[in-house]
Amino acid sequence: MIKKYLLILSLCLGDQICAQEIHFKIPDTLRNKDYDYLFKRIEESENDSSKQSLYLRFYLVKSKSEKNFEKVVNGYKNYVHHSPENLKLIYADSMVYTAKKSMDNALIGSAYLSKGIVYYSLKKHDYALDNYLIANNYISKTNDKYLIYKTKYNIAHIKYFLGFYDEAISLFKECIGYFKENSVGGYLNSLHSLGICYNRIGNYGLCTDTNLLGIAEGRRLANDEMRDYFIHSEGVNQYFRGNYSLAIKKITYALPTVHKYKDFANEAVGYFYIGKSYWDLKNTQMAIPYFKKVDAIFNDKGYIRPDLRNNYELLINYYKSKNNLNLQLYYIEKLLKVDSIIHNRYRYVSGKITKEYDTKELLFQKNNIERLFDKRKYNDYIFTSIILFLFLTVVFLIYRHIRNRKVYRQRFDDLMKKSETVTKVESKNIVNGIEDINQDTVVSMLKQLEKFEKDKMFLEKDLTATKLTVSFDSNVKYLSKIISHYRGKKFVKYINDLKVDYLITLLKEDKKIQNYTNKALAEEAGFSSTQRFANAFFVRTGMPTSYFIEEIKKGQS
């Protein structure tokens, strides 16, 4: 229904523009000016709306009078870039309509891509993805490398939005390789996005390196438009590195630029991580106003993403500690709304990205390979080689399967010889303390860890070092050092091993659990995904879950 109203409004506005064009008198000073001149005047008149309106209108009138589809599309694109938010989509529809009349795949694909970018800027990711996929359908039929990589760049952002960070990293690296020689803006933006992805997968060192490279490359290329964005990204990265004061300083420095560009998404992210930094510095009075700014952006723009969900958990906890039931209830209701939005938004976009875009990419590659095969003069030789390769692959897989079964059997026997499942690495003597941590702090945290293990609190889903340190009233640095010293592991492996050891005990004792799927087992132990559970189980036991359960059942029959 909304699309229907937008179409009607677009047609009405189109009629209005056409009517204005009929009576529009071309100023003598503009009659012989080319499109490049007009475009520069449009950009330079950003602070003079009446003058910019004149150039915008003449650019479109000129292109229509010359019946130049490409320039007409660019004319509407100019309006998209320089119009209020409530008109951008209307001009985008006119841009797509004109492009379709041209029957030019590159022009049509470019128009849909631009419309998708408008939706993305409004954080309407489902509509953005729909338009990216349509754009990809047209652009994939062309040899326009710039458009192909521009589409890859925008789909990479959807991958990032969904949390498919490794796939997004791969696409952004491709874009960096192309844009470095062909587009300064595309190059710097791709570097910025790559750095953010490194942060999300926990590679904070690479994130810092990428941000520093982005700033240096911007300086080398005499383009500082992205400089404050790299600083903003590094500020968020410093939060995750535990440098809270530095995080506050960098994000605060960058926020005026982010606000100037009306980038409410990065503004919300900046406010959240400033608030989180103050929160972890135990300065709740400074933290709460920033959390409320995140909420204000959510109220105004409807913007939210999974990591910002914690904003409402912290507000709820704060007002609970203050016995303020009204605000506690208010933020609980807000969190329910946030959860509903995140669930619906991610479920829709995830289904589209895996079923439509990835399939199109595979089909595109398959068709290219088939065309290459058609050009080969020695088809018989290739066919024979493929058959031989497949045969050797099957033989190798059979051999590896038999060998793995033997290895798994030995590991299973070793595991079952233990009198009981070890749930933790034996603690070292507390006398052998850690130099830079107070002895009383060490003793206290070890007692809390023992209670944490005994009460099986490690089964909590999405448990992080930050969450645990909050409950311990400590900090991430101390917790990581103590777990490393006294449990002999890094935090993630420590939690994963506890979860796996818990499941091993269940599988030995409860036949009903033996019939669980990997997904159900992952849920039982609080793993965030089935794949992470499967990986953690194999690392801990040296065998797949299916083999372990199979052998357990044999021993009980």
TrEMBL record:
Classification via InterPro entries: Bac_ResReg_Asp_Phosphatase, HTH_AraC, TPR-like_helical_dom_sf, TPR_rpt
GO molecular function, one term: sequence-specific DNA binding
UniProt keyword Transmembrane, yes or no: yes
Principal localisation: cytoplasm
Domain HTH araC/xylS-type: 459-551
UniProt subcellular location: Cytoplasm
A Gene Ontology cellular-component term: cytoplasm
Positions in coiled-coil regions: none
Transmembrane segments annotated in the record for this chain: 381-399
Keywords: Cytoplasm, Membrane, Repeat, TPR repeat, Transmembrane, Transmembrane helix
Protein family: Belongs to the Rap family.
Identification of the protein by name: HTH araC/xylS-type domain-containing protein
Species this chain originates from: Flavobacterium laiguense
